[in-house]
Amino acid sequence: MHLSTGFSDLSWKPVMTARTNTLEYWLNWRFLVCAIEVFSSMLIATILIWKYEGFNAGEEGEEAQEEAAGTLYDDESWRPCLKEIHPAWLLAFRVTAFLVLTALLIINIAVQGGEMFYFYTQWTFTLVATYFGVGSLLSIYGCQKFRSKVDSNMLSQMRLETEQGTYVVPTSAESTNTADRMKTYGSQEEYYMRPVGGFWGYAFQIIYQTNAGAVVLTDCVFWLIIVPFLTMRDYSLNFVSTLANLTMESQDASDPFPLIFLSFEYFLLKRILICIVRQFMIGMHSVNAVFLLGDTALNSLRFPWYRISYFVLWTGVYVIFQWVIHACIPIWWPYPFLDMSSSYAPIWYLSVAVMHIPCYAIFMVITKLKHLLLSRCFPQSYVCLR
C-alpha cells in the first residue's frame, strides 16, 4: 500500500472556477496583461544580470579594474564571518540543515507525491535544501583547504626557526598558540592573494540570494494571504480540532479503507499521522527560514542588490510552469491569485511582482545589520570588511 493512501485530504485544494485548458480561458485581455507583466519583469532581470554580473570584465579601462559588485572569492563560500569560528562549525551547521530539510522533503513527497511540486513553497523548500547540500560540499572542500594552509604555514615557520637555530620543541599550550597565529597569518595572507571563486561558488551564492527573497515571499504569502483565507473558510489549522473532525469522519464512505477492514489502532494511527503531517506542512513555511537565517549569521557571502534578478527569474519560471500545466490539464490553481478567470488577475499579478522588492529588501537589511553589528563588536575578527 502506498504511504499516501488515505492522505488525500491533507492538501488544501481550491475549487476550480473555470476550465483552464480552453482557448477562451487564455485568449483574453487578462492573460495578455499578466503575460506582459511577467515577461517584462523577467526581461528587466535579465538585463540587470548582464549589466552587473561581470560579463564585460574583459574590457579595458579603469572601471574594468574595479572589483565587480558580485565578485566572489573562493573562500567566501565556506569561511565563517569571524576568524575565531573554525570552518568546521559552519560545515556542521550546513550538514545538519541539509539532513533535516531533506528528511522533511522526503516525508512530504511520500505523503503527497509529486503533486506537492505544484506549490511555490515546495519549489523554494527544495531550493533551500539544495543550497545546504551544495554548501556542505563546499564547506568540506574549505575545511580541507584550511587545514592544509595551516599545516603548511606551521611547517614553514618551524623550518625558518630551525635554520636560524632558534627552534625549540613547543609544549602543548605553545602548539595551540602557534596554530592560532598561523591561522591569523593565513587569513591575512589570503586577503591579498585570494583566488576568485569557481562555477560552484558562484552558483552557491546565486542560490543563496534567490532563496533569501523566495523564503520571505512564501512566508508572507502563506501567513498574510493563505492562512487568513483558510480561516475565513473554516479550514482548521489546529491539531486538536483537526483530530476531532477526522475521528468523526471515521465511518465516511469515501474512505478507501473502511473501518470494518481495519483495526481501530491502525485507523487511529493513520488519522493522528494526518494531523501531524498537517502541522508539519505549516511548519515547513518557517523551518527553512530559520536555517537560512542561521547560515546568514555565520557565512561570509555578499548580498548585492541586483541579484534580486535571479529571485524574479525564479518566480517567473514557476508562473510559466503553472501556465503550461493549466493550458494542458484542467486543474485547480495552487494559489487563488494565479487564477486568471477573475477580472482582478492583472492586479494580483502586479501586486505579487511588487512584493519581490520588499521581500528581497528585508533580507538585505538583515545582512546590513549583521555587517554593522559584527564590524563594530569584532573589528579585528570580522572578515567581511571590504
Automatic annotation (TrEMBL):
Keywords assigned: Membrane, Transmembrane, Transmembrane helix
Q: Which residues cross the membrane?
A: 29-50, 88-111, 117-141, 214-232, 311-335, 347-366
> Is Magnesium included in the keywords of this UniProt record?
no
Gene Ontology CC entries for this record: membrane
The identity of this protein, by name, is: Transmembrane protein
